Here is the input.
Amino acid sequence: MRSLLEKVRHWLFKPRLSRSSEPETQSFPSFESNEEIRSVRHGTVTVVNNQLIVSDPDDEGSFAIIVIPDDPRLTVVIDGQKCVGEVVVHENQHIEVSLAKSLPSIQFSTKVTKDNMEVIGRIDVKPGEEHRLRDMHGAHRAVLEIETIDLRPDPLGTGEIVARLESAGYVGVLDPTGVETIAQAKDTTECIVLRGTPPVPGRAARYRRVELPKVHDPLQRQMPITSIGLGTTVAVLEPEIPGTPGRDVFGREIPCSVHRSLPTLGQGVIEVNDRLVAVRSGRLLFTKNRIDVIPELVIDHDLSSKDGKVEFDGDVVVLGSVLDGSYIKAMGTVRVNGGVFHSTVLGERGVSVQDAIVGSQIVAGASKLVYTRIYEMLKKGIVEYEKFQAEFQELLGHARQRIDQGTHLGLLADALLTTRHPDLERFLQSFCNETDGVLNADDRYRQIVREIRSKWFGIGRTNITEQHVMALHHMLVDYIFHIESMKHTETATVKAASITSSSVRASGSIVVTGPGTYASSLEAGNSIVIRGSMRGGFLVAQNLIDIEEMGTPFGIESSAKVDNPSGRIRIRLRHPNTVLQVGHTRDRNLAVEYNTVLWEERNEDPNTARGQFA
Here is the structure.
């Protein structure tokens, strides 16, 4: 400190301003002093490794301040008291800093697919967090800031994954890529780690069809041969290659698939040293269910009534036409290169006529279309007949013990039919009254009808013997087997250029490729397609009728019906006075229509629904 004497001396000898001169800038002499000028030192806070280091100020400085955020991750305790917000601190205080920490976790789990053939491994990783205070040095007002560091768990490693799969009891083939992906995963990951062993199916025994030589037409065009000769090798047997069973991921055996059995062999082929050989000439039938050589009858001239009835267990080919009064019945197909005139043609697997059908009866697929009703009637009738036969034999045994047996044995059948078996009597009557033209042309059917009418109706019924009862039973059972032998799964089609004044029925479809139909009745189990005109007559199909032109401008009535309510009738040109019906929907037009499409309208009263047109 300066002495009082020095202060007085400074006051007395300080310079004065001249009154006559302009004011000059006042200058002050510097005083020399032995005392140095010192700065003020304030308190500070240093943060290092989550530790707070506090330094106090000098006598003139201020103490340090820390700002503690209200954060659940941070806890600051000063002298045993938890603090939040701004706090003045000094060196003598005990400061404790605590920071929250969550450890990472890693978990391995598995699941098996529905077919038990794959194990899917899953790594669920939950990261951890480590919190620390941001470092700072010598801050007078220290705001504590929290830094967060993500913690990741160490991968499990390939050995750990394999060990866990084995301990779970899984067996199979490890997927190297999947195992490595799971083993090194640091984030949640899912992939296939193990697979079961699938079965090796092998190959079923089969008949490999032999390529037959080609024949050439006059224009030198190749086409498949139509028939084969006796002794021709038609197929070679390739033996079965057995498969290998598999195992799922639990070690359970998975059997190989059951191989389909070989096709049924018909009477036209035999197996010789792993080869199928034709034992007759004919057409080769080679499907997944049946292999056979179907005999083929080729008629190289026009067929007439002079040739008699043609009944053949195979295909019939007529290179000419079928003339008036002819009859053809084939278990296969009937192909006519010309036309059919005033004749009857039955083809179990189809009828194809290159030219016109006139005044004839054509049936394709008779076993399905014609014989179905009588087949069902026969099966029920046989049941009733066998009940009658059992009672007849029982009464016959009792009657033979009587003295006057000769006068009563012939009346037993009549008494039983009248009193005990009226249903059998009705069956016999219905069987004889069948008026279908095809059945009338069936010799077996006519023979049974003659037997019933001569022995079981009228006066002959009073003299039926045991031999008569057994003979009729044999004939009925034989006829059922005959109908069953004609049944097959395929539907039959009729194709012709035109149809006039004829009845045509097909279990499948009817296709008219030429001018059309005239005053004819057509019935099809599937569809009827007429590329030309339909003038007069009646059409019935199950699903579809498609006609280019229907009716005539003069209003000749023509009718078409589709039984299936979901079916359709399509007509390009529809003349007046034509009747259409789909399901219960019926429509008659009075004017010309173009591009008519009729189907049954849904959710309406069938008695009032008119249908829909497009």
